From TrEMBL:
Gene3D superfamilies in alphabetical order: 3.40.630.30
Claim: Ribosomal protein is one of the keywords in the record: no
Gene Ontology MF terms: N-acyltransferase activity
Organism superkingdom: Bacteria
Record Pfam families: Acetyltransf_8 (PF13523)
Organism (species): Variovorax gossypii
Protein name: N-acetyltransferase
Domain N-acetyltransferase: 9-184
GO terms (BP aspect): response to antibiotic
Keywords: Antibiotic resistance, Transferase
Length: 188
């Protein structure tokens, strides 16, 4: 498998045909630790089916390199999720036109190869094209998830706040860092 810099990352929309693979990925210990997600077919349908159908505006993508699927990245606007704006308000302003992302590299043999950063960079670049009014991308990360916030830093996100937020997995506590990347001036 080449390094991330040697081959482009492809992103394709999640489909129901991916649900079995997604269930396996969500059960991987390094993913389950942070995503804390049910993996039954019913749970996958309940939580991801609406995005596949378009009734949930979150855009979920499967990332691949040279035809091999390796991770998931999703994006959504704060405007479509006003509860996120309210939750972040004590720490940082999240404009409605801004987006947030969630991500993971699922395949254990592809960890620590730069693929997470390449996947996120690919989505960030696409976001500036796809959402011309988006001023920034704001991402809260559990302070305990060093790998997650370090990958954001490698892509160019800056830590802009820290404080308590509701965790995805209660065992990690409420301490979070909030990262932000602004639309490049050349694209304004």
């Amino acid at each position: 498998m080449p390094a991330a810099a040697d081959a482009p990352i492809a992103l394709r929309r999640l489909s129901r045909a991916d649900f079995a693979m997604l269930g396996r990925w969500l059960a991987e210990p390094h993913v389950a630790r942070w995503w804390n997600h049910e993996t039954t077919p019913e749970a996958l349908e309940r939580d991801f089916g609406p995005s596949v159908d378009g009734s949930d505006t979150a855009e979920i993508y499967i990332a691949s390199i040279e035809g091999r699927d390796f991770g998931l990245v999703q994006r959504y606007t704060f405007e479509d999720n006003p509860g996120y704006i309210e939750e972040l308000a004590p720490l940082v302003e999240a404009p409605g036109e801004a987006l947030s992302i969630d991500y993971f590299v699922a395949e254990p043999d592809l960890l620590r190869r730069g693929l997470g950063a390449a996947m996120i960079r690919t989505l960030v670049d696409a976001t500036w094209r796809d959402y011309p009014a988006a001023p920034c991308i704001v991402v809260p990360v559990s302070a305990a998830n060093t790998a997650s916030f370090r990958v954001l830093e490698r892509v160019g996100f800056i830590r802009v706040a820290e404080g308590p937020l509701t965790p995805d997995n209660p065992v990690h506590g409420t301490a979070h860092f909030v990262y932000r990347i602004d639309r490049p001036r050349t694209l304004r």
